[in-house]
Amino acid sequence: MRAGRSARAGLALLFAAGLAGCGGGGGDDPAPTPTTAEPAGITVRVVDGDLGTPVAGVTVAPVGPAGRTGERLVTGRDGTATVPEGTTLVRARRTGWSAGAADVTGRRATVRMYDQRLQSPEYGVNAQRTRFNPNVRAPVAGSVRRAWRFDGKRLLEFPPAVKDGVLVVGNNAGRVFGIDARTGRQLWTQKRRSYIASSPAIGGRRAYITSMDGVFTAYRLTTGTRLWEYSNGGSPIESSPLVIEDTAYFGAWNGTLTALNLRNGKPRWTYRAGADIKGSAAKAGPNVVFGDYSGVITAVNARTGRRAWSTDVGARLYGGPGVSGNRIVIGDVGGQVVCVDARTGGILWRHATGAYVYASPAIARGTVFIGDYGGAFRALDLRTGAVRWSFAVGGRISGSATVVGDTVYTAVLAAPGQARRTWGLATATGRVRFRGDDGRYSPAVAAGRTVYVIGVRTIDAYRAPAR
Asked: Could you tell me which of 122, 76, 417, 430 has the C-alpha nearest to residue 250?
């Protein structure tokens, strides 16, 4: 009997254990095996290439090994979005910004995009050639530590164009450089057959160069690959390209203004002026305006090339015009600054300088800034031509001024034995804010949060700290 009871007790215990294992008992369930959560995806960060700050509201399109995934994501306030696993490339777009793209590295990708309001894509900053961008908040040169210096080896007669993180500039040996705007590193170089006495223009992802052998050349902005050339037959081109949408306008020593189709490098139209065109053209409403060596300023319709009006203002016009609203300002080698009505060509005022005026004007906040060969740099009232202030720079002025924030920059064309000098002056008073020991022609451009000071053959970058 004792043995039977023991056997039955053992069977009961086994049955109870079985029930517990099936969830039928009152014991606790065994602890689950720990698992590792799969990552949610790949983090894409979009930053302003000039300011280093995150960019919200950007549409991000992921691309996988087999092509586009079809998804569209939008960055949040922190400038990030999460794209699916397997993404190898991301493309980013936002209205008013340059398109961006980046390869995925590890589990992240950083895309740099550029606010088009903060660029300086052509001579004079914009199509009106005001040499002033009110959206740029760059530091006064010399007030912060220099970020980098680039040596162009030979004279840089005209300043660079700056767009989408690339500077493009040409020197007097015919060398064209593409420069990384963040680091000052040379990205590419190309050699022209003749020297360059103009600024490039950047439109889309291309850089356009004019040279003194009468050739207009298109390059790929990031690589310097030559895309096509147009020759006007050999007449020197000292005029910096004016780019408006898909057309470039430029003058030449043979007195022709050419409108060039940038899609195929073929002329849309040409206009024959009465003398050499050495300055750069500017946009004034529906027209393109320019001066020539006979002392005539002319407006032609940008689309058709038909003359709208022309006005004889005096002596030779070497520098190009600047346009603000319905007022066009231009310097006269005969020794005056002239303002004409952009609608009719009627003369609104004249200001006598007593010395040659080779420079083009800078125009900002109702003030014209311009220097002359006698060494006087003046701030003139745009409405009346009255002098607001004047500053003696200590030598001749040949290059055009640039306004950055509340500072205007000008440089001295030093004669033998004179000191080289670049000045930064307060726009309101003419008080000295910067004095550099180099410079010759147009002294500065600015884009993003950086002012670039141009010396005889160097470019110095002064950048505001990232916010």
From this structure: 122
Number of Cβ within a 10 Å radius of residue 148:
18
Are 260 and 268 in contact, with CB atoms under 8 Å apart? yes
Instruction: Say if residues 111 and 100 touch (Cβ distance below 8 Å).
Output: yes
Question: For residues 421 and 393, what is the distance between their CA atoms, to the nearest angstrom?
Answer: 8
Q: What is the model's pLDDT at position 68?
A: 65
Architecture of domain 118-463: 7 Propeller (2.130)
pLDDT in tens, 223-255: 999 999 999 999 999 999 999 999 999 999 999
Which of 123-127, 193-197, 374-378 comes out lowest in average pLDDT? 193-197
Write out pLDDT tens, residues 255-289.
999 999 999 999 999 999 999 999 999 999 999 99
Intra-chain end-to-end CA distance of the chain, in Å: 91
Strands 89-93 and 59-64: antiparallel
Both structure tokens of 376: 């006087």
Cβ contacts of 18 within 8 Å, gap of 6 or more: none
- Within the chain, all domains assigned CATH 2.130.10.10 are found at 118-463
**Tell me, what amino acid is at 382?**
L
For 101, residues 6+ apart whose C-beta sits below 8 A from its C-beta are 89, 90, 91, 92, 111
Q: How open is the CA angle 23-24-26, to the nearest 5 degrees?
A: 90
* Cα distance between residue 268 and residue 1, in whole Å: 118
pTM of the model: 0.88
Least confident of 33-37, 143-147, 286-290, 358-362: 33-37
Q: Beta strand pairing status for 296-301 and 307-312?
A: antiparallel
Token code pair at residue 390: 């004047």
Q: Residue 40, Cβ neighbours under 10 Å: how many?
A: 9
Burial class (CB in 10 A: 0-12, 13-18, 19+), 240: buried
180-215 pLDDT tens trace:
999 999 999 999 989 999 999 999 999 999 999 999
